[in-house]
Design goal:
Blueprint: H1 7-20, E1 36-37, E2 47-52, E3 91-95, E4 101-108, E5 113-119
Antiparallel strand pairs: 1-5, 2-3, 3-4, 4-5
Protein name: DUF1963 domain-containing protein
Organism: Paraburkholderia caledonica
């Protein structure tokens, strides 16, 4: 099972990745600043899973979303709140070519499955407690 990463650990990894990544990479062909359906052109062999935001001590993580200031799920500036949906179901991927970090999860609906991906930006990560 992948290593659980809390918000503090994710911020540290994101800052380190941002400090060492320079220039374009094939992982950047499609803008992934906000959630996107995983592009068919994205080569998954270019990534390695380095952790998970799925808490190990919960049977079923919350489906509540954290979207302050009129942000939406799809917004590039929406906060990355690891305790909230969909982040609490994400794997953390690292591009093996450039070191950039991405969040990845599979959205399942009644008649579809959609693999989604979003770039990790350290400044967007917020450690917000769950509301009761």
């Amino acid at each position: 099972m992948a290593q659980y990463l809390n918000a503090e650990m994710l911020v540290e990894l994101a800052r380190a990745a941002e400090a060492r990544t320079i220039g374009p990479c094939a992982c950047m062909k499609t803008p992934l600043d906000g959630w996107q359906s995983q592009p068919l052109s994205l080569d998954e062999t270019q990534f390695e899973e380095i952790g998970t935001l799925l808490p190990q001590d919960y049977v079923e993580p919350t489906f509540s979303e954290y979207l302050p200031d009129k942000t939406s799920y799809w917004s590039a500036d929406a906060p990355i709140a690891p305790r909230y949906f969909p982040y609490n179901r994400c794997a953390v991927w690292k591009c093996v070519l450039c070191g950039r970090l991405y969040l990845h999860y599979t959205e399942g609906g009644g008649y579809f499955v959609d693999r989604r991906i979003r770039a990790v930006k350290a400044d967007l990560i917020e450690d917000v407690p769950l509301l009761p």
